[in-house]
Amino acid sequence: MFSVEKLKEKFNITGRILVNEPLSERTSMKVGGKAPLLFIPDKEEGFVRLLGILKTNDFQNYFRDFMSGEGLIPYQHGLYFILGGGTNIVVSDKGFSCPVVSTGDLCDFEILGNEDERFFVRAGAGLPMNRLVNLLKDASLGSMAEFAGLPGSCGGAVFMNARCFNSSVSDFFVSAKIFDMDRGVTDEVFMDPSAWDYKKSPFQEKSCVILSVVFAVNKVSREKIEEKMRESVNLRKEKGHYLFPSAGSVFKNNRSFGKPTGAIIDSVGLKGLTRGGAKVAPWHGNIIINGGNATASDIRSLVEEVKKTVLEKTGFNLDCEIFFVGDD
């Protein structure tokens, strides 16, 4: 009979393991199926070791037996899936037929020191961005106050090069410790401005997992930090970011077209368009919300409808910012 403790003992796995875990509560869209096994390592070393274990024939045979006992078919999409903060993904209604590994407990934070006016901090990939901003505030380090209220993790924000109110994560990025999944080794990636752009990072072109990140920030008075944080959170509230489950902006902006994507979608009359429980937010064309009973299929259908209509009416091909993941 399957037992989490026996699984840990057999493969010397640390951290938490959850069985048949619903992923809807681990994503900002609140949709999606289950993970047959959800691993949540609590240390970088255990995380890296686990990824090696999941590739072994011994574990794959074990997992096939586990899935067979559940009446399921394993490994339709790779050996495992890495789950970050869950804010830029839509998990399919079927969920995953492979193990899912979460960065959620990689939440270390450390002030490394300073060089003149720049202070260097290291954050674990799973540390929520909003938590990072608050930790920086406590140390009177406020360069990233614009990211207050941003959902998601540090690793995900770096991967997407998240942008908030004219500031991008790349403005503060120094380096990242990664696990290269192709080579099976850890490595360090340093800032190279030519590899970054709007909503683009070098990690999108790599087969890797971000483990931790070093940022450079400046000393700022706590009062100014708190003022900027309040301003950022209030702007998010005004844009309706917290009213319903969503993944934030669905499509990237392309200013060369003449106006923001939300305005383009508004101009063709798509605000309020509904497919099942998914709806284009009545107050912002570039946000799709879960009205309470949406499925991943509803969201995908609505995204495709918006793209098709915008292309037909404007000639503009929208570039989707969110990822659809899981079994088809």
UniProtKB/TrEMBL annotation:
GO CC annotation: cytosol
Necessary cofactors: FAD
Reaction(s) the record says it catalyses: UDP-N-acetyl-alpha-D-muramate + NADP(+) = UDP-N-acetyl-3-O-(1-carboxyvinyl)-alpha-D-glucosamine + NADPH + H(+)
Listed EC numbers: 1.3.1.98
Principal localisation: cytoplasm
Catalytic residues identified in the record: S249, E321
InterPro entries given in the database record: FAD-bd_PCMH, FAD-bd_PCMH-like_sf, FAD-bd_PCMH_sub1, FAD-bd_PCMH_sub2, MurB, MurB_C, MurB_C_sf, Oxid_FAD_bind_N
SUPFAM superfamilies per UniProt: FAD-binding/transporter-associated domain-like (SSF56176), Uridine diphospho-N-Acetylenolpyruvylglucosamine reductase, MurB, C-terminal domain (SSF56194)
Pathway this chain belongs to: Cell wall biogenesis; peptidoglycan biosynthesis
Annotated FAD-binding PCMH-type domain residues: 31-220
Pfam families: FAD_binding_4, MurB_C
GO MF annotations in UniProt: FAD binding; UDP-N-acetylmuramate dehydrogenase activity
Summary of the function given for this chain in its UniProt record: Cell wall formation.
The protein's name: UDP-N-acetylenolpyruvoylglucosamine reductase
The gene coding this protein: murB
